[in-house]
Amino acid sequence: MPQSGQRRSPIIEIPPGETVASYDKYDDAQAAVDTLAAADFPVRKVSIVGADLRSVERITGRMSYGRAAAGGALSGAWLGLFFGLLLVIVAPQSGFVFVGAAVLIGAAFGMMFNVVTYTIRRRRRDFSSIAQIVATSYAVVVETELANKARNILGGAAATATGDEQGPSLYL
Predict the structure, then answer these.
(1) Which of 71, 140, 145, 167 is most exposed, with minimal Cβ within 10 Å?
(2) Measured distance CA(55)–CA(133) in Å, rounded
(3) Across-strand partners of 102?
(4) What pLDDT was estimated at residue 7?
(5) Which residues have CB under 8 Å from 116's CB, separation 6+?
(6) Domains, the chain
(7) 73: number of Cβ within 10 Å
(8) What is the per-residue pLDDT for 69?
(9) What distances in angstroms separate CA 76 from CA 24, 63, 102, one per listed residue?
(10) Edge-to-edge strands, sheet with 18-23
(11) Residues paired with 21 in a beta bridge
(12) Using one digit for the tens of pLDDT, what is the confidence trace for 129-147?
């Protein structure tokens, strides 16, 4: 336990304890933790651990100058809106005309920046995508002294679950 004034260090290791259930989908593992929480289980002693991580990149479309310009203008406009509103907060006498000007200037700079970046990277990456890290399975891990209690709670919930023919894999 950290003393007052000390910061907690980030968790950089696999939590100790026993695996009480395993799921193919993260949402199912989350639902199991919700079940434990509803049964007044001390959820601070529970972790969800993803296994067999994979990088998945989904292609969302072909990149073009128009798409690069539109994306840059949109992100630049948001940045301009932020700075314009910040200017109004700091100097209220500046008025909201400066907010509109900041949005337009931000959109122009964002558009130029994205088009130049796309031009430089053109033949190396002619598509847009979304990348994420996913696990193939998720284990609900509970500290050893509470593992049997968690298994009992989740075992009862799995027996009454509807719509899920298999239910979770419980380690009894």
Answers:
(1) 145
(2) 5
(3) none
(4) 60
(5) none
(6) 18-58+133-170 (3.30.70), 64-125 (no CATH)
(7) 21
(8) 94
(9) 40, 18, 10
(10) 46-62, 127-142, 18-23, 169-170
(11) 140, 170
(12) 899 998 999 999 999 999 9
